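Please, structure for the following, as tokens.
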Amino acid sequence: MATDFITLTNVVQMVVSGLLLGGVYALVGLGLTLAFGVMKIINMAHGEFLMLGGYLTFWLFTLANLNPLLSLPISMVALFGLGGLLQHTIVRRVVGKPELTSKLLTFGIGIAIVGFALTAWSSDYRSVPYLSTAVDVGGVRLSTTRLLAFAVAMATSGAFYAFLRFTRGGHAIRATAQLRELALVCGINVWRVHVIAFGLSASLAAIGGSLLSMMFTIYPEMGITFTIKAFAIIIMGGAGNFLGAFLAAMLLGVAETVGSLFVTAQAVEAIAFILLIGTLLVRPTGLFFGERE
């Protein structure tokens, strides 16, 4: 957008739109934070899980005319199963190993998933045309889809946080994340916790992908972009800090939407890189204070 036409209304609209988008980014970032917090694994295939969630929603909408919102539980369950299976059969072998080992393994898994997607669905860009309307709030027009996606993302994030805080399974995950050896001594089945945590991580990515498929086009190679964004979120938020990840996601969403007023769509994709590099240079432990959750 040319800067000559930038107004206060434009900026406010972009800020609010960025906050709505940040809510979905937070959901995706929480999934990557969970995998890292529990197993110290940076899942380079996280974006590919997101891509699969988007495609599940697309095909269910296209072939079965299923409301995209109703496809969310299907995406969640399907990717939970895939994530749990991958952790039980492959990823478990690199838990506790140097981080480079897990990065290379999950990067290879991501390549395999992209290859499958390209073979099965081609490289065509696709989208889910759902609720292409807008709501006028005080002269600021907001996308109905983004409002709905934000509400779903916040509800899911809240449910996930409540699960970690108030359920036995959540307590087991947190105990394993804090000190695996002590969790073993206390009788917690750490390997089962790892399977559940990795499955939940994939589920959160899948829900994010399903929501993003209603706002953007999806394609097989999209995963790497969102892996980088999720990685930027956990670095900015502080590794293992869920509140920090949420705030970082909001910052990234606003930076991208406001940045689109001044630069091209291609340049906007570099914002996550800039924030990531800037954080590593200025405050590598994260931009936000707080105890690790």
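The longest helix spans residues 8-39. The chain has one domain: 12-224.
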